[in-house]
Input
Amino acid sequence: SGVGTYVLGPGMTAPDGQEGEEMEEPIVAGVATDLGQAKITVIGVPDVPGKAAEIFKVVAKSGANVDMIVQNVSAATTGRTDISFTLPKTDAATALKALAADQADIGFESLVHDDQIGKLSVVGAGMRTHSGVSATLFEALSVAGINIEMISTSEIRISVVVRGDDLAEAARVVHTAYGLDGDVEAIVHAGTGR
Output
């Protein structure tokens, strides 16, 4: 489906000799899924400058590799906020232990560990020049009744966190939404994984 169109004036031929056809980089090259992540939510963080830095310094020192981060809008009444982040399941225990040890210093209320999440990523170099890629993703998940817990975007990738149980269905409806059903397995090329 990734075929662009030339508009040719009289007597012009398309550069590749094909009559008005060229292969474009596909807008969405593939859909990747990952069940190997966990989510940690730091609840009741004082909403003052430097708290996120303290939290992620502690997490980094524990050796955990943080992937996605979402900070909720603070509750005006309490002046506190929640910060959620994802990391490999194998890093979760050490990160939790490190945060718990510094709870008094950082001043948060509690920690929630959730290892029943799935990450779905839509990857494609054509995404940066095409609007509507994220709308298609969110619409497909919405129609399927799949709730999105976290969103992270870059120029060539959109990632969402959903329930682990929903991940296979999410991948199926997203493949269909982008017309990737012909692919037995979507190939994510090396170097596009940022």
In short: The two ends are 25 Å apart (CA to CA). Residues 37-114 form a domain with the Alpha-Beta Plaits fold (CATH 3.30.70.260). Residues 17-22 have pLDDT under 50 and may be disordered.
